[in-house]
């Protein structure tokens, strides 16, 4: 394919160099945004009498035909083209002749690619938010199912206090809500049009950038032409948001891996989201959760790659910036795949309440409630804390638990203990009385579920 930019040079690029320079094998993803942007540009050129309305209509009809042919499989991308912009313009010119050559008036590939990537990421952000809402819905459904199922809550991976499985699940729902907020904020900041910045300095034509921006659904225009073509903050911001999202999925994956192990056996994963061993017939491996955990590093790498690419670039456009798309495209595809798999894994996961309850009974996780019992009887907390700790040490030595220790033994530590303490330190009471907003009581978990469902 002849180079559209031939003139100053002959346009005869070495084949290896041409392949190295080409980006169509990945930026062809943006064909729809490139064509829609060109349609708006043609309409603006006619509105400002830079081309005639008849010429604009011809261009728009020609672009619409190219879009239709690509989507219907009648037109294949030419991988010898330098990029998606050159491919579309070349096909348009072949079909329309000299009229097709007028489309690129008052713009550059620099502002054109900046426009395409913003439009593409805007669409992808919407899709990402939709997938996140679906996953959050699956989590809240599971939390509703297990809102009263008692399990040990952990700090330092040591059993700490009794909570419900529903409460634990809702912690991840809250994290993913923040991910939606971050992606939404990023989408809002990227929604400013760079088209009309041209190569870097604007144009001598009397264009209407705001007309074009409005036609393409932008909230405004980039107000500095140098910044408009060189800004990739929105790519970094989206990559950062995706990295945080993957960190949340990775933490969740780690807990699912632990919970599904024989050492915990808190949950059973569906056969559809596990694999077996080639040599050990008893194995049921949580491979999907492990892969999500592993792919988190891949998304982190995409963020670091682009940060490194941009860190030393002078204004305005540099060819280095072509590297933005492979990083952000890879991260988007990876995260969307992880979200899709994760949603199915969570919705088909089953808890094993008896194992959760048994684990909760064996870790003295009601010791804080024992101390609170003495505080309610008038003892200072620090004194109550010391007595409770001494009782736990006694139970460990005697290989018993707080619920089974006789009342006379309790009274040997403090005369404040009465028979009502057994109800106070039961796991059900410990959970039921955690009534503070955001806590683990069933009523609190129900309020969290209601809030999240309304939010999404």
Give a description of the structure.
The chain is mainly alpha-helical. It has three domains: 15-105, Fumarase C, Chain B, domain 1 (Orthogonal Bundle); 110-357, Fumarase C, Chain A, domain 2; 367-425, Ribonucleotide Reductase Protein R1, domain 1 (Orthogonal Bundle). It has 19 helices and six strands. It has a two-stranded antiparallel sheet. The protein has a two-stranded parallel sheet with strand order 3-4. The protein has a two-stranded antiparallel sheet with strand order 5-6. The two termini are 49 Å apart. The mean pLDDT is 94.
Task: Give the topology, please.
Elements lengths: L14 H7 L2 H4 L3 H17 L5 H19 L12 H13 L12 H37 L4 E6 L2 E7 H26 L1 E2 L15 H7 L4 E2 L3 H6 L2 H27 L7 E2 L18 H24 L12 H26 L1 E2 L1 H9 L5 H10 L4 H18 L8 H7 L7 H4 L2 H6 L9 H14 L1
Task: Report the count of strand segments.
Answer: 6
The main pleated sheet reads as: 2 strands, antiparallel
What overall form do the CA principal axes indicate?
elongated
Quote the distance from N terminus to C terminus: 49 Å
Any idea of the CATH class of the largest domain? Answer: Mainly Alpha
Q: Into which percentage range does the β-strand content fall?
A: under 5%
Radius of gyration: 31 Å
Mean pLDDT: 94
Q: Looking across the biggest beta sheet, what order are the strands in?
A: 1-2
Low-confidence stretches: none
Number of helices: 19
Task: Supply the number of structural domains.
Answer: 3
């Amino acid at each position: 394919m002849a180079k559209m930019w031939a003139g100053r040079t002959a346009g005869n690029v070495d084949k290896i160099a041409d392949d190295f320079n080409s980006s169509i094998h990945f930026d062809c993803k943006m064909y729809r945004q490139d064509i829609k942007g060109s349609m708006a540009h043609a309409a603006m050129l006619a509105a400002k009498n830079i081309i005639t309305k008849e010429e604009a209509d011809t261009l728009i009809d020609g672009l619409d035909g190219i879009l239709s042919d690509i989507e219907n499989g009648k037109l294949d991308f030419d991988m010898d083209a330098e990029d998606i912009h050159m491919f579309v313009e070349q096909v348009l010119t072949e079909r329309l002749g000299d009229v097709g050559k007028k489309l690129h008036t008052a713009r550059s590939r620099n502002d054109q690619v900046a426009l395409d990537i913003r439009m593409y990421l805007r669409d992808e952000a919407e899709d990402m938010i939709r997938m996140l809402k679906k996953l959050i819905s699956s989590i809240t459904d599971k939390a509703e199912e297990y809102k009263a199922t008692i399990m040990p809550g952990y700090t330092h991976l040591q059993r700490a206090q009794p909570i419900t499985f529903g409460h634990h699940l809702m912690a991840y729902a809250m994290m993913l809500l923040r991910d939606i907020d971050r992606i939404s904020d990023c989408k809002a900041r990227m929604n400013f049009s760079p088209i009309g910045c041209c190569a870097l300095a604007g144009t001598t034509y009397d264009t209407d950038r705001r007309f074009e921006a409005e036609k393409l659904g932008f909230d405004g225009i980039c107000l500095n032409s140098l910044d408009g073509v060189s800004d990739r903050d929105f790519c970094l911001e989206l990559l950062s948001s995706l990295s945080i999202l993957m960190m949340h999925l990775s933490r969740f994956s780690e807990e699912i891996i632990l919970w599904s192990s024989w050492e915990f056996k808190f949950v059973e994963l569906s056969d559809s989201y596990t694999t077996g061993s080639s040599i050990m017939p008893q194995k049921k491996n949580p491979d999907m959760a492990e892969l999500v955990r592993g792919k988190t590093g891949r998304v982190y790498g995409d963020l670091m790659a682009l940060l490194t690419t941009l860190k030393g670039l002078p204004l305005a456009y540099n060819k280095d910036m072509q590297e933005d798309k492979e990083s952000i495209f890879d991260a988007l595809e990876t995260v969307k795949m992880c979200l899709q798999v994760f949603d199915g894994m969570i919705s088909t996961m089953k808890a094993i309440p008896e194992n959760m309850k048994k684990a909760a009974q064996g870790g003295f996780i009601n010791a804080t409630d024992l101390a609170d019992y003495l505080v309610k009887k008038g003892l200072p907390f620090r004194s109550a804390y010391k007595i409770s700790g001494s009782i736990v040490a006694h139970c460990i030595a005697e290989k018993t638990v707080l619920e089974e220790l006789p009342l006379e033994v309790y009274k040997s530590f403090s005369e404040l203990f009465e028979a009502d303490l057994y109800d106070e330190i039961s796991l059900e009471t410990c959970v039921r009385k955690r009534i503070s907003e955001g806590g683990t009581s069933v009523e609190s978990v129900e309020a969290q579920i209601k809030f999240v469902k309304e939010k999404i």
